[in-house]
Write a structure and sequence with these properties.
Layout: E1 2-9, E2 12-19, H1 21-29, E3 44-51, E4 60-67, E5 72-80, E6 88-99, E7 106-108, E8 113-115, E9 120-131, E10 138-152, E11 176-190, E12 194-206, E13 215-228, E14 231-244, E15 252-254, E16 269-271, E17 273-284, E18 289-299, E19 317-328, E20 332-340, E21 346-354
Antiparallel strand pairs: 1-2, 2-3, 3-4, 4-5, 5-6, 6-9, 7-8, 9-10, 10-11, 11-12, 12-13, 13-14, 14-17, 15-16, 17-18, 18-19, 19-20, 20-21
Length: 357
């Protein structure tokens, strides 16, 4: 239930969306200790403003605001046109507030769910993105950003320690600051019967001030899809590691949808390093429905001792198996997965992707 509206104001376009559905579902399914007396807490929605010609020279301005049950995000991006053979520049400012579940969440129900650990992250970032011209199957983007991270509790107050008395920042205070250079490279190749994708992200923290974080973090995702008669086999492998300064919220979280199904978000483990492997086979049942079977596994490679994983009893490695259905329609793709983890706990995942997302 909700409302959607698009408005054209001169050259600018405004997309407005308000949705009450998620709030009603969550009220029935979830118990929260947060104060939701404010009428705004009943609203889940988004506001998008796009101006294609801000100063008369094709400069683009995008303003995006999203609000969820317990999270919000504001993004302002400005892009100045340049010749196609030069790097495309984008200046952005972003502010977000979201629960930190992957690392500080507490596993419950045999690790099938992760409960709130009372830690939320308030992030502010500002910087420059440079997108290199695509060549063949490769594309790349480089960014230089200042980031300020402030952990807060469920009441919105700044905190330096979690509910168990352990630090939630690298500095030991109520916030962390850093300047980060990030390089992202993508490879994609597809044919009628297969596709190959590879993504590599490398981040370097630059200590312009003595208390700012210095670290090197990399993450890669490799995936391959092959058609085998009427069936389609999809495999993917994800890995990453971080050296240098590390705040708990920077750790790799393993578990949940998109990682190891059958576990809650971060319920398998979290640490300085991670590996996750996924295999899925889909088979068409009719023109609009596909059946799927899958196997997921992941590990923190014994690096969970650097973050709160061990004191929360996370196993550090896990395997999930299951099956599901994929529905295709003109509105989007609907997905239902039924997964079982290594502790014989069963979990159902439901997802929907619209055509335009």
């Amino acid at each position: 239930m909700g409302a959607q509206k698009s408005i054209h104001a001169g050259n600018a376009k405004i997309d407005f969306n308000v949705d009450f559905t998620h709030k009603l579902c969550a009220a029935l399914m979830l118990h929260s200790s947060r104060n939701t007396d404010s009428p705004l807490s009943l609203v889940i929605g988004s506001l998008c403003i796009k101006h294609p010609n801000l100063f008369g020279k094709s400069e683009k301005l995008d303003v995006l605001w999203d609000k969820g049950l317990y999270d919000s995000n504001v993004l302002i991006a400005y892009r100045k046109p340049r010749p196609e053979w030069l790097s495309q520049q984008s200046f952005s400012i972003q502010h977000s507030v979201s629960p930190e579940i992957g690392v500080h969440g507490v596993p419950v129900d045999n690790y099938s769910r992760s409960g709130s650990g009372g830690v939320n992250l308030c992030r502010f970032s500002a910087g420059l993105d440079l997108s290199e011209p695509a060549s063949s199957n490769w594309s790349s983007k480089t960014s230089l950003k200042f980031e300020h991270v402030r952990p807060i509790n469920d009441d919105g107050r700044s905190i330096s320690r979690d509910l168990h008395g352990f630090p939630v920042t690298c500095s030991g205070g109520c916030h962390d600051s850093m300047v980060v250079i990030k390089q992202e490279s993508r490879f994609a190749k597809a044919s009628e019967h297969s596709f190959t994708r590879f993504n590599l992200q490398i981040e370097q923290g630059i200590p312009l001030l003595s208390k700012w974080l210095i670290f090197n973090r990399f993450k890669f995702v490799a995936s391959k899809g092959i058609r085998l008669g009427p069936a389609f086999l999809l495999t993917s492998f994800t890995g990453g590691s971080i050296v240098g300064d590390i705040a708990p919220y920077q750790a790799f979280a393993i578990g949940g949808l998109g990682s190891v199904r059958g576990y809650g978000e971060g319920a398998v483990g979290c640490g300085r390093s991670c590996v996750v492997a996924n295999t899925e086979v889909t088979l068409p049942l009719n023109r609009t429905i596909e059946g799927a079977v899958f196997l997921d596994c992941g590990s923190d490679l014994g690096s969970g001792r650097y973050v709160p994983a061990l004191r929360h009893g996370k196993p550090g490695s896990g395997v999930g198996v299951g099956y599901g259905l994929r529905f295709k329609s003109s509105l989007g793709h609907f997905q239902v997965d039924y997964a079982v983890n290594a502790f014989q706990q069963r979990t159902v995942y439901v997802g929907f992707n619209s055509i335009g997302s």
